Amino acid sequence: MPQAPIDVLTIGNAIVDVLARVEDHFLQENKLTKAAMRLIEETEAHRLYDQIGPSVVISGGSAANTAAGVASFGGRASFIGKVRDDQLGEFFTHDIRAAGVSFEVSFSNSGPATARSFILVTPDGERTMNTYLGACVTLSEEDIDKRAVEQAQITYLEGYLWDPPAAKQAFVKAARLARAASRKVALTLSDSFCVDRHRKSFQDLIVRDIDILFANEKELKSLYLAPTFDDALQRARQEVELAVLTRSEAGSVIVTKDEFHVVEAEKVAKVVDVTGAGDLYASGFLFGLTHGRSLGECGRLGSLAAAEVISHLGARPQASLRTLAVKAGLLA
Asked: How many domains does one find in the chain?
């Protein structure tokens, strides 16, 4: 893949994560589906915040987490997302830039507040996400930096942002710009509930504009309404140049029309919080891909990053991923 000023440009929701530990009965009492993501209004956001106990506040958002992971490996990452000119917007901007990611989108000075997601972590490490999208929904075609897209080896699109019509148009614009510049476009399906809402339009986008597809087993089966993982996998490998498919503790499967790789999950002493596992897997894989690594090596870098992030609270790496990769013999 030819070198470019930016390795990976990610586009997605700019969200501040509020993480709290809860027991399973808290989910039951609040009628929350465990391990799922749901969209909430601002009033519900305030209600949940009043009910949870001590929390950890950190910048998040799926594509932003991936960008932070790429930067932690030593890659050149950029992020496009929308925040409001409020306290959480300033907090997010500081965090993403401090992580080494370029973030130049202007603040919204009116409209909804900066997005936040209440991530409720149960004792088994599963996370249940309740997300107020806020300013994220105001992302539009005007926020897509043509020069950044053209300078990025890979533009990575977050499926969660496929809900708002203006953001959908922004995605299409970015994909078209990237392809016109002979760059690659990647999409993560993000969540099976997201796929259920947008199955047909996702399928159309994938066939028309996507080179690299990231999905977990459940998302992929939902996308194609396939009875088995293998059925869904065979469909994906015919529709995209490269499919990167994660299966939690079972590792990952990476396929092209001609190649098939199975990569084991990296072992961890204890799973603390699975938030961001897929995001960080994508960061390792994309870093490897933009630095000339084989598909198997890309998968191992992804597994290493995912293992680091699930070993602690929060969806951003707390240790240098490059240092960990060097220790593991994956990078020099």
From this structure: 1
Q: Is residue 283 part of a domain?
A: yes
Do residues 299 and 254 touch, judged by C-beta distance below 8 A?
yes
pLDDT for 164 beyond 90: no
The domain of 98 spans: 6-327
Tell me what pLDDT residue 163 has. Answer: 82
| CATH at 292 | 3.40.1190.20
Question: Is 94 within the bounds of a domain?
Answer: yes
Distance, CA of 67 to CA of 279 (rounded, Å): 9
Residue pLDDT, tens place only, 244-288: 999 999 999 999 999 999 999 999 999 988 889 999 999 999 999
Residue 332 counted as domain residue: no
Give the list of residues 6+ apart from residue 179 with CB closer than 8 angstroms, or none.
185, 209
Can you tell me the distance from the alpha carbon of 332 to that of 69, in angstroms, rounded to the nearest whole number? 18
Mean pLDDT (the chain) is 94
Residue 126 CA to residue 120 CA, distance in Å, equals: 8
Q: Provide the 3-class DSSP secondary structure of residue 8.
A: strand
What whole-number percentage of the chain has pLDDT above 70?
Answer: 99
User: What is residue 315's predicted lDDT score, i.e. its pLDDT?
Assistant: 87
> What is the average pLDDT across 38-50?
92
Tokens in use for 39?
A: 């969209």
Angstrom CA distances, 172 to 140, 290, 318, stand at 11, 22, 33
* Residue 249 CA: distances (Å) to CA of 11, 26, 62, 93, 120: 27, 26, 20, 33, 21
Residue 112 lies in a domain: yes
